Amino acid sequence: MSSADPVGAQATRSLIERVFREEAGRLTASLVRLLGDFDLAEEMVGEAVVEALRRWPSTGPPRRPGAWLLTCARNKALDRIRREARFKDRLPQLAARIEALPDSAEREPDDRLRLIFTCCHPALDPDAQVALTLRAVVGLTTAEIARAFMVPEPTLAKRVTRAKRKIATAGIPYRAPEPEERAERLPQVMRVVYLVFNEGCFTTGGDLGVRRELVDDAEWLAALLAAALPQEPEPLGLLALIRLHAARWPARLDAGGRLVPLADQDRTRWDAQRIRSATALIERAASLGRTGPYQIEAAITAVHCEAPGWKETDWPQLLRLYDMLLALDPSPVVRLNRAVVISHTEGPAAALAQVEALTGRLARYHLFHATRAALLRDLGREEEAAAADREALHLTANPAERSLLTARLHGDEGTG
Amino acid sequence: MTTKEDTMKYVLLLTRGAWQEEGSEQERAEVFDGIVEWFTKHRADGTIVEANQLREPETATTVVVEEGHSSMIDRPLLEAKEAIGGYAIVEVPDLDAALELAASFPVPDGKVEVRPIVER
Predict the structure, then answer these.
(1) End of a domain among A76, A101, A126?
(2) Does the residue A217 lie in any domain?
C-alpha cells in the first residue's frame, strides 16, 4: 500500500477493488447517514472510484488510496449538494459535516454497522435484505448479485430499488440497535451473512468463481460485525464458521469440478493458517461465556478441520456438540447431520433408523436422500441406495453435487 | 424529547381478530378494557394523534367507480378475516417506534398494518 511504483492496469484494478471494499463501504455509510439518501451516496462514491480507475493507471496509485478516495468522494458530494435544491435549507450544516468526515484511520466502524442493520431491517423482505446488504455494504453491482443468486438482473434491481425507497419513505431509521435491543436484531443480520455464505458454499450452483467471491464477501461481512461488536460471541462464531469452510475450499472439488466428500478430501490442501485463526476466534467467543448456534456449528466444523483424517475424527466430541446444537435448534436438518455422527459411534443401522424417522419432514431435501443412500450402501442394500441417490439427484440443481451423485450411481466413487 | 420536525406520522390499521367473534362475553370485555387503557395511555403521551373504532364490517358499503359511473356493493372492501376494526394515527420518531407500538396493541390475535402518511 505504501509503494508508489507504477503498476499495470490489472494490478490497479485489484488494488481499487480492495480499497473500495475497505474504504468505500465506510464512506458510503457515512454519506448515507449525512445525506439520508442511499442512491446519492452510492453515486458519489461510485464517481470517485471511476475517477480512480481513470487516473491511477497512469499516475500510479496514491500513497494512501483510502484517503484519496475519501477526498474525491467528499468533493463530489459537496458539489452535488450545492447544486441540488432539496439540500438548500441544510446546506451550511451538511457542508460542514461532510468537510469534517474523518480519515479512515480515525473512523469508527459505527457507520457501517448502522448501514448493515438498516439493510437487514426486519420490515424489509428477506430477499431484499440480502440484495441490499450486498449492494450497499459490500458494494457489489446489481449485475453481480443477480449472477450470484441466479436471478434476472431486472428483478434484482427492482428488489434493491424498492428496498431503498421503503427505507426512505417508510422512515426506517438509519441506526444500529441499542445494546438492549441487539439480541433481537443481531440474529437477523447474522442470518443475512449466513445466507450469503450458504449461497456461495452449498446451494444453487452457477459460476464457481462468483460463488467463491460470495464466501469471501460473507467472511468480510462477518469480520465487520465481529469487529464492531467485540463483546458479542456469535459474530465471532459465524466468522470462524465461514473461515473454516473457506480454509477447506481448495480441496472441495476434484480436477473434474466434482464435489469431493469431506471423508475423501486431501487434507494437505486445507489452509492450516486459516484454520488456526478460526479456532482462535472460537476460543475468544467461548471466553465471552454465552454459547450460541454459530459457535457450536463452528466448533463442529473445527473438529473436522483438526482431525488428521476422516477415520481419526473425534466422533464422541462431535456427538456432544450436535446434542448441544439440537438443544438450541431442534430442526430436522440438525437431526440429519447428527445421524451421520451416530453412524460412526453406533453403526449405520442405528443411524439409518434415525434418518428414516425424518422422512416426512425432509422428503424434498436432497441431502436427506444422499445421506440415506450412503447409509444403505454401508449396509449392503445397493438397490435401495441407488434409488435414494436418484431421488437426491432429482432434487438438486448444484452441478458439483450432481456430478458426485451421478458418479456414485455409476459405481466409480471408490477412486477418491 | 423530539421536536415536531423529527417525527413521522403513520396510520395503524387494526384488523378485527378472531377473538371478536369467539370467546365468552367476559373475555371480550377484558380485551376491550385493555384496548381502552392502551388508547388512553398513548393519547395522553401524545403518540396517538387520532383514533377511532369502526362499526361492524356488516355495516360497510363499498362504492366502485368505473368509467365515471359508480355502483355499490353491500360488503366491506376486505375479506371478513382481515376486516378493519379501527385505526389510529400516530406521531413517532421513526418506523421502529411505530412498529413497536403496533406490536404492543393488546389483543389475543389480529394484524396491524403500519403505513406512513404523506405529509405536505
Answers:
(1) A101
(2) no
Which residues of chain B approach chain A closer than 8 Å at the C-beta?
Answer: 8, 10, 93-96, 98-99, 116
Q: Are A19 and A66 in contact (CB under 8 A)?
A: yes
A405 inside domain: yes
Is there a domain that residue A247 lies in? no
Domain boundary among A101, A118, A135: A101
Contact yes or no for B95 and A170 at CB 8 A: yes
If one counts the domains in chain A, the total is: 2
All domains of chain B in start order, with CATH: 8-116 (3.30.70.1060)
Partners of B95 on chain A (C-beta within 8 Å) are 123, 170-173
For an interface test with A, the pick among B5, B94, B115, B117 (most A C-beta atoms closer than 10 Å) comes out as B94
Q: What is the domain range of residue A11? A: 1-101
pLDDT tens-digit readout, B76-119: 888 777 889 999 999 999 999 999 999 999 999 999 999 999 98
Query: For the segment A137-160, what is each residue's pLDDT rounded down to a tens digit?
Result: 877 788 888 877 778 999 999 999
Element (H, E) at A119: helix A110-119
- Cβ separation of B96 and A173 shorter than 8 Å? yes
A173 inside 8 A of chain B by CB: yes
The closest alpha carbon to A322, from A306, A337, A307, A344, belongs to: A337
Mutating which of A114, A165, A172 best tests the B interface, going by the most B Cβ atoms within 10 A? A172
Q: Give which of A228, A309, A123 is closest to B99, Cα–Cα.
A: A123
Q: What ipTM does this complex have?
A: 0.83
Beta pairing, strands B48-53 & B8-15: unpaired
Nearest chain A residue (CA) to B91: A171
Q: Per the domain annotation, does A286 fall within a domain?
A: no
B103 contact residues in A (CB cutoff 8 A): none
